[in-house]
Each structure stands twice: as structure tokens, then as C-alpha cells.
Amino acid sequence: MLFTALGGGMSDASAAPGQGLSTAAATPDRARYDVVLRSDADGSHWTGRQRVSFRNGSDQPLREVYLRLWGNGEDKCGTPAAPSPVTVTRVRGGTPNHLGVNCTALRIALPRPLARNMRTSIAFDVSITVPDRNARFGHDGAYRFLGNALPVLAVHDTKGWHLDPYVSVGESFYALTSDFRVRLDHPSSLKVPATGHTRTFPGRAGRTVTLSVAERVRDFAWAAGPFRMATDTTAGGVLVKSYWAPDTPAAGVHVNRVDAVAAIDRFGREFGRYPYDEIDLVMTSQFGGGMEYPGLVLLGTTEEGGAAVHEVAHQWWYGIVGNDEYSSPWLDESFAQYANARFYGWDTRDCWSDVYWPDDNISLTGSMAYWSQHPGTYHLIYTAGPCALADLERTVGSGTMARLLKRYAKDHWYGVSTTADFKKAAQSMTDKDLAPFWEARHIW
């Protein structure tokens, strides 16, 4: 994101999340989502059925799963007059409990313990109402954005269940790669860009079905509206679909299209080939900054363009090379902004002169628990983080840095990485002791 400015051997609902699993394996994994949704006349409301099957990747029996209803993050549990935007009902395959974490987490007890490597599934009705705000889950006039709208499985690992609260500045999201097959039934007057490879076919009178299939992605997002549309293809064969509102500056749309096409192939050479065959750009003039999803990015667009390159870089740093965005936001935001700086050829030799560091106790590797309480310092993720990576490039040499990033991406392709993983990878590439380097740059 870029701003402008199951597990756990819990046998009952009272047990603390995180108890019971001792293995390093994250679970539930290898999830497959099958979703059928139908929209109202303007894409503001979607209802349908969602099924998710999954495997227990842990050595311990899986007795429960959690659904994250991230779309409720801003509105929490709502009010009787204005209920939460995302609701789940008629659960099959498990017994739902009360919503927790401000109505963003739903515990579902499985009917029997799920053994290692065994699969099961849950299914439920879902209702999604787009909030009245210009945000990643919101709208810009007639253009609806459905980022983090679909319920997705929470992750359990050695730290327990990850049931962190929602944050609006930054991201809380942590997900394993999954497969999605999503059928969106909507009025033919609406175009519906979406994660994955999409195709459309006629529905009932006046309606169209957009079918999207995505493999090995961490989330699924879509948009809906009377967009204009154009397509480009990168030299490497990736289809870039651009969607924009008519009042979006034409010059900015052009800049975003050109930059995105170039960035996809360049980052593919630097970090590993983009593994999907399509990416969608969704552009409006009033959206604030940009927001990344697998295969789809939302871009606020002016005459000068938008954050297309930064958001495309997120396809690798968060999308392909995953991380817990709540606990380690620098691993995606700083890496994406460093890639952005390299793309544009910015001179980073004096970049620290633009960094205001208010407190020597601040760690660049801090979690959103800190940054959300100190939003005035969150800019460090975008400023100090890329400076630190540029310093690392000068310390180990540009050729070594290039090899490091490509190897690091390969080693964590479709997986999850940590700060410790990156520091270990960097140290393996040089005889220099990097411990003083990390300490001097608040990477602890």
C-alpha cells in the first residue's frame, strides 16, 4: 500500500487462541475457495455462497478454524441501523461461535479433529455491502472497490492463531497462498476487474458473469463500475488490463499503463518471473494513493500517474514472497519502495537526509501494533526502510545485492518470510559481519 502523505488444540471456546500446536508448519494450508456471488444494480451489494476446503499442515490435530472478516475492520460490529458490511450465515461443516476482534474473526469448531495432511471443508452464505467511503473496501462515486471483502482463513503457526486487529493505516493481513474460483454475476453495464485470470459470458437478461480463476494467491479482490478499459501485453507475455473512471486524467492513465508494463518484466528479471498471466490496474482520480492485491491494484491517478510501480512491486513483496503484514510491515512496504526507487533510478546516496527519526528506540522492524499507535512515524517504513536496503546494496555490492534478492525470493516463493530469514540470507552472501549494519539502521 502507498499513502499520499486447524490449528490449535483448543478444545473449547474459552481456551486462549494459540495453544496446542508446537510444530513450525503453518495451517490450515492448501486452501481452495469456491465462491458464487450476485450483485445488485450498481455493485454495492453482493450475496451468495462460499466454500473453502483446506488441509491440516500441522502435526497436531486441527479442531477449529477462524475466518477473518476483514471487511468489518472500519465499521467493526456496526449498529442495529447500520450492521457490519460483511456477514456470514448458514455455516456448514463446523459450528460457528460469536464474532470476535471487533467482528473481524469468526471461530468455527470442526465436528471432529482433523489429522495431519487430511482435508475438510466449510461452507457458508456471505453478504457483502460496500461501505460509503473512498477506501480499499469502499467506492469512488459509481466505482466500487472490494478489497479484503471476502472472508479468508486465519493462519496458525508457532505463535498461535493470528487474530490481530484491523488497522486502516497499513495492513493487518497474513495469509497463506490459496486457489480461488470466483463467479461474479452482475449487470452487464458494470465491468468487473478481479484477481486471477478472468473471462466473461452472458448471464440472464441484462446480466454478465465474470469468472475468475487464481492459483497460489494470498487474497482475492475485485472492483465494479462503468469503467473504460484497455489492454496491453508485456514483452514477457503478461496481460495488463487497465480500467479507469472517465474523469481520470488521460495522461495519468497512460503513465500508469506504461510504467506497469515495464515494471512487470523488469521485476520479473530481478526477482523471478511473474507467475500469473494477468494483472489489472483500477484507476480513479480520488482514490487515496494505491493498494495492492494479487493480480489487481487500486491506483489514485493524477496527470502525473500514480503508484503503479510500487504496487506492482508488491506482487513480489507480499504476494509471492509472503510475510505477516501486521507483525513485519517493513518486509513488504520497504522492499516494494526500494524496488520502486531502483526502477526510477533515484539517487539514494543521501536519502537519509530526508528521514526524520524521532526516537532512537524505534525499530524499523516494528509491528503495526506500534505504528498504528504512532501514525506520525509510519512514514519511516517508506523512507528509512528503502534507505537501509540501498545502504545494504552499497555495503555488499550491487551484483551481490541482485543475487541476494533473486535467491531470497526463490527460497521463499509462495511461502512466508521473516526479518530473521532476510538477515540470514544477506549474511550468507558476504564475509562482512552485518550485525553492526542492522543495529545502526534500527533493523532488530
TrEMBL record:
Q: Where is the Peptidase M1 membrane alanine aminopeptidase domain?
A: 309-439
* Record-linked InterPro entries: M1_LTA4H, Peptidase_M1_dom, Peptidase_M4/M1_CTD_sf
Pfam families in the record: Peptidase_M1 (PF01433)
Q: What is its EC number?
A: 3.4.11.-
Q: Which GO terms describe its molecular function?
A: aminopeptidase activity
- List the residue ranges of the region (Disordered): 1-27
Keyword field contains Ligase: no
Q: Keywords in UniProt for this one?
A: Aminopeptidase, Hydrolase, Protease
EC class (word): hydrolase
Q: What is this protein called?
A: M1 family metallopeptidase
Organismal lineage: Bacteria, Bacillati, Actinomycetota, Actinomycetes, Kitasatosporales
